[in-house]
Write a structure and sequence with these properties.
mainly alpha; 13 helices; 77% helix; 0% strand; globular
C-alpha cells in the first residue's frame, strides 16, 4: 500500500471514528475510490483503529487513572463505570464473533454502506425531533451510566457491526434514549471504544496477519499515527460541540453522502 494512501486512510479513520458518521463506512468508501478493496485492505481499515483507541487513552488518562486507583478500595463510581463498560462490551463481542465473516463477505461494499448511512441519518434526526430537548437536558455525569444503561447502550452498539451504521451514532443515540445528555452519552461511547475497538483490532490483526504482512509495517504505522493525532483533536472538539448543539447536522450529512454514493455506484 502506498504511504500516501495509508496516510489518507488514517486521516479518514481519525476524523470519523468518534463522529456519528461511520468510520468503517467512510474507510470502505475511501478504499473503493482509492482502489484498495482486497482482504488486506479490509483488515488494514480495522487495524488502524488502534490509533484512535490510543487517542481515547491519552485524552481520558486522568479519569482512567483515577478510576483504576479507586477500584481496589471498592469506590462506587469506579465499580459502576467498570461494570457499565463490561455490560456494554459483551453484546457486541458475542454478535461480532458470530457474524464477522458474513459481514465482511456481504456488507463491506459501497452500496450497503450508503444504505446504512442514510438509514442512520434518518434515525438520528428522528430521535432528536422526538426528544425535542436541548443537548444539555438529561443526566450529565459519567457516574450516571449504570450497568443497566451500559447494557442497553451495548445492545444498541451491536447495530454498528453493519458498516455505515456508526458505532458512535448507535451508542450516542441509545444513550440519549436512556436519559443521558448527548455529551455524556458521547463520552461513555468514547470509553466503550476501548474494549470494543481494542478487541476488534487485536482479533482482526491476528486473523488477517498474513494479508497484513503483504502491506508492510510502514503503511500500518503511518495509518495508526495519523489516525491517533486526528482522533485526539476530534474528541475534544466533538464534546465541546455536543454541549451546545445536537446531532441533526451529522444526520443531514449522512443523508447527503449516502445519496451521493448511491448515485456514483449506480
Amino acid at each position: 500500500m502506498p504511504i500516501l494512501v495509508a496516510a489518507l486512510l488514517g486521516l479518514v479513520e481519525g476524523l470519523t471514528e468518534y463522529l456519528p458518521v461511520s468510520s468503517t463506512g467512510h474507510l470502505i468508501l475511501a478504499g473503493h475510490f482509492l482502489g484498495e478493496q482486497g482482504e488486506a485492505a479490509k483488515s488494514f481499515e480495522i487495524v488502524i483503529q488502534l490509533g484512535a483507541i490510543l487517542a481515547v487513552l491519552v485524552h481520558y488518562r486522568a479519569l482512567l487513572w483515577q478510576r483504576a486507583r479507586e477500584l481496589p478500595s471498592g469506590k462506587p463510581e469506579a465499580r459502576r463505570l467498570l461494570l457499565a463498560l463490561v455490560a456494554g462490551f459483551i453484546p457486541t463481542a458475542i454478535v461480532g464473533l458470530v457474524a464477522r465473516k458474513w459481514i465482511k463477505a456481504h456488507l463491506f461494499g459501497a452500496r450497503p454502506v450508503a444504505i446504512a448511512l442514510i438509514a442512520g441519518g434518518i434515525v438520528m434526526i428522528a430521535v432528536e425531533l422526538i426528544r425535542g430537548r436541548k443537548p444539555d437536558d438529561g443526566e450529565t455525569r459519567l457516574g450516571d451510566v449504570t450497568p443497566l444503561r451500559g447494557l442497553l447502550i451495548g445492545l444498541g452498539q451491536c447495530a454498528s457491526l453493519i458498516p455505515g451504521t456508526s458505532r458512535s451514532m448507535a451508542t450516542i443515540v441509545t444513550g440519549q434514549l436512556t436519559g443521558l445528555t448527548t455529551a455524556t452519552a458521547a463520552e461513555f461511547s468514547f470509553l466503550l471504544a476501548l474494549p470494543t475497538l481494542g478487541a476488534a483490532t487485536l482479533y482482526e490483526a491476528y486473523k488477517g496477519r498474513h494479508e497484513l504482512a503483504t502491506l508492510g509495517a510502514l503503511p500500518m504505522a503511518v495509518g495508526m499515527i495519523v489516525s491517533f493525532l486526528v482522533a485526539w483533536a476530534v474528541i475534544a472538539a466533538f464534546i465541546a460541540y455536543l454541549k451546545r448543539r445536537g446531532l441533526v447536522p451529522f444526520g443531514l450529512y449522512r443523508l447527503v453522502i449516502g445519496a451521493l454514493v448511491l448515485w456514483l455506484v449506480r
